[in-house]
Description:
By secondary structure, the chain is of the alpha/beta class. It is built from 5 helices and 5 strands. Helix 4 (82-88) links the parallel strand 3 (70-73) and strand 4 (95-99). Helix 3 packs parallel to helix 4. The two termini are 14 Å apart. 1,3,4-trihydroxy-5-OXO-cyclohexanecarboxylic acid binds at residues 10, 73, 75-76, 78, 99-101, 103, 110.
Amino acid sequence: MKILIINGPNLARLDIRDSSIYGDFSYPQLVAFIQKSAKDLGFDADVRQSDDEAEIIRWLHEAADAHLPVIINPAAFTHYSYAIRDAADLLKAPLIEVHLSNPMAREEFRHTSVISGVSTGTIAGFGPNSYLLALQAMKSLLQK
Ligand code: DQA
């Protein structure tokens, strides 16, 4: 089972982001955790990160064409990128939105997700385990 996992802007710099919010994992450690979790659940995961909105949109178009399931942490794009929302809406397979932190417990501008409305569901606030939970949820969605 192929799956595309997209991480948005600034996530590659978890090493210098606030560890009281994002935890102690570096980005390479997060990717290793996601890849191992995916493999254990029988997924062939393609994990990508970009700070560039256009690149994320291109990846979503590719996933739409290939009917691939997607897990996305859109990072700050979550809160305002209608272009990523419109691209996500083109997907044919399920989309799960994930966040390391719980945006609803943070600043008010993070309380809006323009992505949630086109996602099958959202998992937030569990650190790296948000990705594991999303992979488990995706597996059960795809087995239905
Ligand atoms: C985030 C939450 C967003 O509000 C923030 O802009 C991020 C990371 C998270 O994983 O908790 O960059 O998506």
